[in-house]
């Protein structure tokens, strides 16, 4: 049947990329098979929400160490896959200050006890693995990317328990610890690496006293930032560096943002709030996100860490990543009344639904955890095994791009920094949808069909529309050029 001129004029021009349980991996789709009960997704670019800061993952010593174990060819393949324009084009990244659980051992940049002025500050532990990985990523990236750094703990000598794990920063070292952040900027800039900002402390509630941690209450962190860290960075000419408070699970947001933004003098030093996803395997906590946004609508709200935790990665078996077989820490360890938040889940589903849910609730950045892990889910000195989007077997010089890599790319590649999340109406509650308009005018619509049946929908923009079908268990990015 021939299409009339009028139908052609009213047809929306789109490019559709799909990743699916059936085997598509960011595959361009052009043929759409009609099914009954077509839903409608109506886009409204005039209604705008948050501006996007970026999407990406974390540079960890473990990931960097593994890259150094691979052939140059495979190392380059992975770096290009994450950072090139042809790849996932990551735009927002994280790294750790001092060691974390995804380090080879425990170390600090301030190894000399009572070195109050940090005259012996050194990043020598980062020189072999971490810094070369960051530099290679910078070389691969056309547009560049932002890096924020997070400490897991100060050196034991600065803490009340004199240990790597748990305890609090001694008040007499608050100024020393603020100086530490400034010294870190200096040291990394000397290596040609610009630090965009910081989270004040990774997981200030602690993490069950398992690996590097340091505890803050909301008031203690806010006092540290308002009276020590903020003024110190300002004094040293780094007042433009971003400071993100909290940096743990979303459910606890209210008490933290209430304290962080308690006054003008505290608010001025906090540029935003950092959050993690480990409170639940499926719940986005929209009320908490909405509360944090309403408390400080002009500030950042960034997901700074999420991964499939407490799992050894499944090697070269794409099907596993789509099946509800994975569990997380809470499946075994959560108190009985909270266990309902941790059912078995499918890893791809968890990533896709969480990122879409975050974008639809004011989150402006979403950062994955490790970029590369081995077949065991490490190296991790505490044996806290996790999954990464790229798994490698250094012994065999083999690389496996899991479906999680393509899931991340559906967002990072097509929704670019400064894009604005836009309004939409979606008539099918079983389709999860978000949309953002890039600064070049293009619109990226991300649709997730978590169900077991193929679905069809019309995308409508102004007077134009187009028909699209999405496979069962599939994620699509639909690119619309508006110019």
TrEMBL record:
<keyword id="KW-0326">Glycosidase</keyword>
<feature type="domain" description="Glycosyl hydrolase family 30 beta sandwich">
    <location>
        <begin position="419"/>
        <end position="478"/>
    </location>
</feature>
<dbReference type="InterPro" id="IPR033453">
    <property type="entry name" value="Glyco_hydro_30_TIM-barrel"/>
</dbReference>
<dbReference type="GO" id="GO:0006680">
    <property type="term" value="P:glucosylceramide catabolic process"/>
</dbReference>
<comment type="similarity">
    <text>Belongs to the glycosyl hydrolase 30 family.</text>
</comment>
<keyword id="KW-0378">Hydrolase</keyword>
<feature type="domain" description="Glycosyl hydrolase family 30 TIM-barrel">
    <location>
        <begin position="52"/>
        <end position="415"/>
    </location>
</feature>
<dbReference type="Pfam" id="PF17189">
    <property type="entry name" value="Glyco_hydro_30C"/>
</dbReference>
<dbReference type="GO" id="GO:0004348">
    <property type="term" value="F:glucosylceramidase activity"/>
</dbReference>
<dbReference type="InterPro" id="IPR033452">
    <property type="entry name" value="GH30_C"/>
</dbReference>
<dbReference type="GO" id="GO:0016020">
    <property type="term" value="C:membrane"/>
</dbReference>
<dbReference type="InterPro" id="IPR013780">
    <property type="entry name" value="Glyco_hydro_b"/>
</dbReference>
<protein>
    <submittedName>
        <fullName>Glycosyl hydrolase family 30</fullName>
    </submittedName>
</protein>
<keyword id="KW-0732">Signal</keyword>
<dbReference type="InterPro" id="IPR001139">
    <property type="entry name" value="Glyco_hydro_30"/>
</dbReference>
<dbReference type="InterPro" id="IPR017853">
    <property type="entry name" value="GH"/>
</dbReference>
<dbReference type="Pfam" id="PF02055">
    <property type="entry name" value="Glyco_hydro_30"/>
</dbReference>
